[in-house]
Each structure stands twice: as structure tokens, then as C-alpha cells.
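Weekly structure sync, notes
Attendees: PL (lead), two postdocs, one rotation student
Agenda item 3: pending single-chain targets
PL asked that the sequence for the first pending target be pasted directly into the notes so everyone works from the same version. It is reproduced below exactly as submitted, 433 residues in total.
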Amino acid sequence: MRILTALTIAALTSTIASAQKVPTAELIQMAKNHAPGLEQALRDTLTDANIQKGAAAAGEMGEFVFAVTADKQPNLVISAPRTGDAPPVAATKVGGLWVYQGKLKTGTAYRYTWLVDGRAIGGTNDLAAFGPDSYAQPGAPQGKLSGPMALESKIYPNMKANVWYYVPSQWDGSTPLPVQIWGDGQFYTARRPDQYRVLETLDNLTAQKRIPLMVNVFIQPGTGAAQNQRSIEYDTVDDTFARYLLEEVLPEIGKHVNLRQDAYSRAMVGESSGGICAFNAAFLKPDQFSRVLSWIGSFAALQTSASHPAGGAEYPVMVRRTPRKNIRVWLQDGAEDMENARAGSWPLANIEMANSLKLQGYDLPLLLRSRDPQSGAGLGRAARDADLAVARLRSREDLAGFRPGPRRKSRPTVARDAEPPVGSHFRIDSLTD
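Predicted structure, written out during the meeting:
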């Protein structure tokens, strides 16, 4: 499973330990001041296992601290998506550890490694530097998270799944709300602050009026007789999961929140297999779902059938041969995403999907990150793209009804530094930088 694996939009991989004994801001301040007790605080917070592997780091608001063990003084090499490797920086001895503290530009992800006598040790490729919208901000009230609710399914026999829903504090308790549905929802509902910071991002975007008041529904893949239940739900090219939402999940949420019922007010969000799941719902039932946010989408031959012998890998051709539907799609992938002989190439499939959607006149951006790893894309992607993606997915709309715009005939545009302008189809960060 290629889940972070961030408003996306992810345990925090090996980068940051899940149970921090010292708050990150305090840990960074201790490192800045070379405070007594720093070594033990780092060990307690980042864990000896990650420190020894060279995969221990913690960051907040662009300030980071790194720690490693080594026989000789190591140098830290940090690589940014567009600029490549920064000059090596020397670590400082703190007891039995080597430590570096410094500042990184926010809104992107980094890969880093340690060098000892020219030999690379440790490091990770998914160090996220979250921007300000990923942190609680003054004047942005917190919404209310309810759940998990354990739902038993009839559409998927013998399956149970946990479901949460998140309602903005500004809601008046009666006005029907648009709904945004997140696959792999268990990753986004941990106690704050978690590794994805989706709830904080939703709070901030709502307060800034960049998105409308809406309920966000987080669904965990079910457990049942099948060991690969997640893939069955997400990767199968049919409308079963969409019916599961419409007939079982949303009616249950509707007992607690007044939901809008029109397709234009429903969005689907997912990463990896969750990405194709989101597209499945909108493409196969555009009268019920109209917005798709797909991160590292698995448009691949993972679940095949007699009607779809190549599974999700068939989608680029299906899109080109099907009349344009009233849906809006946001695609993101990394140039170093996975590929294999049986299922296909994730980067190529996402490029083909974007091209097919473009040929049919859909309004969409494709963000293809040059240095996103296959599974580590999540945190960095969420850090950089979640607020932009969610806001874009809900932008330029009259939520009282669907007003489809004219077909766009513009050629794909490639933007390296600016965000994609309205009407452009592609944003591709260089594959070689």
C-alpha cells in the first residue's frame, strides 16, 4: 500500500516519531540554545532507532532539528524539489549525538541524507515543511470531529468500516452542507497535531472563505472476509463503492448533519488506490459526484475483471472514448512513483489520464512532482498542495447549482514556479531538476 503514507492530504513514516515526549517547538528551541538535556530530549522524542538509522528529524513552521549517531562528524545534505542538493552542512556534537538545526522553506517536501567520509548514511525522502495553513491560526475556529462510527455493510457482505465526520464550527446546524469524502480516512483523524494536518487546513481555509462550509467524511477501508478489502473497494472499476457511499455511508451521516444531495456539492478525495476510487465514483456516477482530488492515483491493473481485463489501466482510453462529463478533476503524482510489469507505471498512467481528460475538454490541473518518491509523496504533497487542491476543487462555483463552464481549448501549459492559472491543464515541475 502506497499510502503515507496532506489538506491532503500520512505514524509519520520514519521521519518523525509518533509519540513525541517534547513538543517540537520546544525541542527546536532547545537545539537553538544548546540547552542542557537536549541529547535526552532528542532521544526521547525522535527515538534511538530513528537516530541510529539517520532518519530522525522534527520540524515546525520551517524550523527543523536533525540528529544522528556517527563515529566521525557527519555533514547533512538536504535536497529541495527544484533546486537540488544544497551545500553540505556540518553537524554539531551534543553528547553522543550529532545534531543540526536550521530553517527550510515551507510549502514543500525535502529529501536528506548524512555524509560521513563521503559515504551516505540514513536519510529520508519525505520530510515535509508545512506552510502556515497547516497550523492552527488565530481566528480560525476548530470544527467538531465525530466518530468513529462502526458501520456494517450489506453491499460488501460481512464488512465493517469506521467512519468519522467533521463539521465546521460556523455551521448553523440546519443549512444543508456540501460533502467531501476522504478515502483512507483513519489517517486524517488522529489527535492534533497529526502528521497530515488536514483538519487544521480545513479550519483555516474555511475561516479564510477559500472553501465553503462543508462536512468532511473520513472512511476507513473495511475489514471483512477478504484480506485485500481495501483494493477490492478502491481499485475495482465499477460503481460498487459509489453505491456503498450513497446507500449506506451518506444516509448514516445524514442522520447527524443536513447534507446537500446534488452532485455538484459532493467531492471525493483519495491517494494511491483511493485516487482511482475517487475517480471511479465521479466518472461512473457523475449525477451523484462531480469533484475528484486524486493524489498518486493508482490508474493501474490492480483489480481486473472480465469486463475490465486491464482494470484501472483502461481509464485513459475510456475517458477519451466517453463524452465529456460534468466533473472537475485534480491529479497529482511524482515522477519517481512506482511501476511494475503487471500493473503498469503510475507516473505514465497519470500523465495519460491528464492528457485524455484534456482532449475531452475537462478543466483540470496535473501536478507532476519531479522528486516525489512513490510512497513518500504523501506528506510533502500534502504540505505543499493540500490547501491549493482543496480550495481549487471548490473554487469559482455557485453552490446553489451547477453551472458548467465552456469547453476549454487551451493547450497544456507548463508552470514551474507559479500556481496553475485558471484554465490551464498542466503544471509539471521539471523532471530533471
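Discussion points:
- The chain is about 25% helix and 25% strand.
- The chain has a mean pLDDT of 84.
Action: rotation student to compare against the earlier draft before next sync.
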